[in-house]
């Protein structure tokens, strides 16, 4: 649709009925010289996890959670600047109502040191008829133009987030530019293809893209990047039995870091999966919130902390430190050089904290802050800080466009919160703290115990959040604290629980992980007591986090470029299996022993004997090598193949197994080299400490 669009436009003008027919068939609005495509993207429901959302406080919604309307969606409009001067969108009108006027800011609630103000349609002075109109149209929460200034011949995207699905079958939208206003009519309720994930190689010359189609048997025909057909340099994995297709695009020259691009996967039935994203690349990041406590003058504490992070295979320091010593050391020239040498990056809230961070942290748990926004109906509070975060992200982008943004969303107004904030930042984070939920069961909600005997909550939140942020990457934060409520204390996570949670997170599609929180609490304080304690349970968990880091980061080159896929799988009883496609040459098979249970005392499980997994391999992949990645590096796996099916003979599965099926003859050797160089010595030390701890009476 993008290529040769000016000629197409002239043809469209002369044959409007043909254009209308095309739009009805594809669900994409007719193009003109500025607007090249548009569609409504409905939130993907996950009714199988709805039992996790029924415990929301009545004070959040004002009504019973089970009786309220659920789910909304977003409008996406893709633009091309045909002129010789920059193009800026001045306003967007939804059903004739200005979004600039409708989503009004208020100084009544400020967030993050007053940088971010709340914005909501209930702060506006719109007439009641206009309010009724935009609420019926879905109730806009936030909108954005990216990039805010579209250069000549450049492309951009308008996103409008709606709280609920519009009541009408079509949305009337109008885009106001300096010299013209472009009207659009966008259909609602049509199933359409989606871009599920986009990631980039370290040199930004290769793109790993995954597109899905709602109907089985319809495969991609070609791929366009910013309106240019790049199919000749593209490998498309096609299997008519599947709905998800891996696409690997190789470019002649690299993309610029932080540059904005639009990908268009055109299917054989004429439909398209279109998405915009900024180009960023990195290795798999594995992080920790907090650090070893120390005074500002104790730089040796900061120095030792970086060494401790490396010894536990942590390569990302999250935004909150809780240690003056570490904060001061990381600001020093010695600290920055040491971080660079060890490959450790920081997430920071303000650019002055680090000249070259991993990401800018827009906000922590804005959904929780939404609940304290005054003068807004309870059911309309969530998302009140989103428009302010969009503006803050743009300010940070102007400061340093090479650094992506991140936002973390909590548990307030679930599950709406995850959908509403999913597209705000470049990296989307969520914190499904399983042990916190389990502690709540014992402290105040015993009726929910059946929901939390397993850590499924982590997988459920991960699934929703990956769908909400697609095609951008998902970062999941796991709990590593002990809940303290004055004289009541819960326990730290067991190593078994944390291992299972990590595999659940990866199975849901997470491409980054971190842990909350390291800083300890005084004995009778209230809150989260971190790992920096002599408690044997905390030390055991810290060792397991380090061991898991070696496994996950060894598989990192595959995980970063992967996407969850529903392949045809059969397996032994009690074995939980999920599969990730990794490009067109590899499949990751994640296995968890599902015969386990958790309570206030810990976790128990029964190993699975003679475990087997059989899966139908997509037709594009010819399996040649099968191996496992574990704490010891790369290990052989017994397997056999019958026609299109591969069977893995796993023997005894204690807790987890990570198996790779690939056609790449050098992959295992490359990953073993990575393990040997970065993680082997660390793991040997951690396993030795583990053995010594188990030997103590």
Word description of this protein:
This protein is α+β, with helices and mostly antiparallel strands and 697 residues long. Among the domains are: 261 residues, no CATH class; 126 residues, Sandwich (Immunoglobulin-like). 26% of the residues lie in helices and 33% in strands. The chain is built from 18 helices and 41 strands. The strands form ten sheets. An eight-stranded parallel β-barrel has the order 19-20-21-22-23-24-25-28, surrounded by five helices. A hairpin with a 2-residue loop joins β3 and β4.
The level of helicity is 25-40%
Shape: globular
Average of the residue pLDDT scores? 92
Number of helices: 18
> What radius of gyration results from the CA coordinates?
25 Å
- Contiguous low-pLDDT stretches (5 residues minimum) are 1-31
Number of strands: 41
* Beta content: 25-35%
- Secondary structure class reads alpha+beta
Largest sheet: 8 strands, parallel, barrel
**Order of strands in the sheet with the most strands?**
19-20-21-22-23-24-25-28
* Gap from first CA to last CA: 71 Å
Topology:
Elements: H1 5-14, H2 16-26, E1 35-42, H3 58-61, E2 73-80, E3 91-94, E4 97-98, H4 99-102, E5 104-111, E6 116-120, H5 128-136, E7 140-146, E8 155-162, E9 170-176, E10 181-187, E11 194-200, E12 206-212, E13 220-225, E14 228-229, E15 234-236, E16 244-250, E17 260-267, E18 272-278, E19 286-288, H6 299-311, E20 316-317, H7 324-331, H8 333-342, E21 345-348, E22 359-364, H9 366-370, H10 386-399, E23 405-409, H11 416-421, E24 427-430, H12 434-443, H13 456-469, E25 474-479, E26 482-485, E27 488-489, H14 495-508, E28 512-516, E29 526-529, H15 536-554, H16 556-560, E30 562-565, E31 569-571, E32 575-582, E33 586-593, E34 596-599, E35 602-605, E36 608-616, E37 625-630, E38 633-636, E39 638-642, E40 645-653, E41 656-662, H17 667-678, H18 680-695
Parallel strand pairs: 19-20, 19-28, 20-21, 21-22, 22-23, 23-24, 24-25, 25-28
Antiparallel strand pairs: 1-2, 2-8, 3-4, 3-9, 5-6, 7-8, 9-10, 11-12, 12-16, 13-14, 13-17, 15-16, 17-18, 26-27, 26-29, 30-32, 31-36, 32-33, 33-41, 34-35, 36-40, 37-38, 37-41, 39-40
